Amino acid sequence: MKTNYMLILLVLSIMTVSCGNDTKKPIADQTPIAVKINEGNENTNHSFLTASGTIQAVKSANLSTRMMGFVTNTPVNVGDKVQKGQLLLAINNSDLQAKLSQVNAGITEATAAFTNAEKDYNRYKNLFADHSASQKELDDMTAHYNMAQARLEGAKQMKNEVDAQFAYANIRAPFDGVVTGKFIKNGDMANPGMPLISLESPEHFEVMAMVPESEISKITSGISVNVLVKSINKTVKGNVSEVSSSAKNTGGQYLVKIALNNPETAILSGMFVTVQFPLETQTSANMVLIPVEALVTKGQLSGVYTISDGNTALLRWLRLGRTFGNQIEVLSGLNSDESYIVSADGKLYNGVNVTIQ
After folding, report:
1. What band does 209 get if pLDDT is binned at 50, 70 and 90?
2. DSSP string, 14-76
3. Three-state secondary-structure class, residue 289
4. Homologous superfamily of 69-200
5. 129-175: per-residue pLDDT in tens?
6. Fold of 33-46+285-356
């Protein structure tokens, strides 16, 4: 019985091995992934630095008032185009109207007194010339005439003061532009110095960029720069118009203004940009730049796929530096004469077979 049992086990083992040998087939060769490579570093002579900035209108204003009062009229809304001198906001000015009436009454009274004093002065001048009036009488009329003239001038200056106060009760556009902000509505109380309406001209734009202290000495006014507008993915030309010489209030960053040349109509105030400043003194013959889209990131690590001698993908980790538009500087991990994969028709991983298109 034991012998039969052993025979059965032996037969089963042979059948198992036989079946396994029948199902084992050679693994088919893996289809290589088609890739595109960049033969070495084609852009090794870039001599510029980059800085982030924002676009703003050259003409812009936050309008406020010097008087306190309730807002009675706001005839414009955000986005409205306005002309210079157009009414933007009105504040209750009943007290000014009353004061203006008093001033006008004072001017009328002072004008009548001056006219009468002028007639008396001219009369006494003629009398004095005919020796019919004394010197003292002429002096008294002259003094009376001068005082009447001074009172009239004072009344007119009071009217100018009231008219100036009306300019703060009726806020008008200082230039042609577009309303970009409205911070108050009818019935609200307007306080001195509080922003009420913001206005800007959309015709001319400039960029406000911050440059570190280590690079500011290399930037001079008037140089031409490239400005990459990230939101619309376009590059426009500009010229440095101002370079600040102090970073006292900007935390070690120096303010640089760039005037844009013929900006795109799609550009709006507040858009973020990257400015490329050319640096003639910088030598960058050995700089290695690669496209940002070629990077592979895992956590805080960044690298690119290279091609091994066996035509397989090999991930190479890199140490990166500054960004130059859509390219980034490689500080270590890739030589300028080495090729790397820019794009692939499939998913890349270490050891996968690749073929160069």
Report:
1. very high
2. HHHHHHHHHH--PPPPPPPEEEEEE-S-S-----EEEEEEEEEESSEEEE--SS-EEEEE---
3. strand
4. Helix hairpin bin (1.10.287.470)
5. 888 888 998 898 999 999 999 999 999 999 888 888 787 888 899 99
6. 2.40.420
